[in-house]
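Hey, quick one: can you model this chain's 3D structure?
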Amino acid sequence: MNHPFMDIPIPPSPDFTWDASRAIAIEECGEPMVPASLVPEKILVRPQYYLHMLEGAIPECYVRRSVLERLIEAADMLPKGCRFVLLDTWRSRHIQTTLFQKFRSELREKMPLLDDSEITILASQYVAPPSLHPQRPSPHITGGAVDLTIVDATGICLPMGTEFDETSEKSATAWYEKKIEAKESVSEDETEAMHNRRLLYYVMHKAGFSNYPDEWWHYDYGNQNWALLRGKKHAVYGVTEPAFRWRSV
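Sure thing. Here's the predicted structure for all 249 residues.
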């Protein structure tokens, strides 16, 4: 597969800290949430936490309306036959807390010598710490965060070098670019993954999203992460939820 974006290196990761992100002011615009599964010719929905049967997860990917518009714009830049696959978007506070604790437990098993504060710091690299503060929300609870990958015309996800939600340094978006910069060898499979990450990065960036540097799959629009990384004065998305008439989340 060839695409001009595959030849453009991903730039060095910008400085990012959760403290800096959460210091950004939020001026909520009130934009509604919409389901993302209604344009399957461009976007497929595979909500991973629902499929993994996490309590409280839902079988739809909801996003803010402008996020969906920009996802469609980005999808139109993909090679012919390719589509996005949404793995996770809006999350309730309950799911955010569950995920954070699961990541802490996983890291505790892998690294038993670390203390609780070190485990929390490491877990925060891959899952935003749960927050009840309306001015310090987790990105996914705003409806402005999307976790996604790309599928080809045969229904196979393009290799990205790691699985979704893998807690390793290889998940960093520019991991392969750094290997090349350090003059380390890059295998044929790694080169393919690098090109696919570049494709995802540039179609999303061109559509107005920002990328969370530690996760090749995570992109933001409208929330505090986006405001910090795209140099905006304030975020426009705060805490929200879909309009569930009969269900409480």
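One thing worth noting: The two ends are 42 Å apart (CA to CA).
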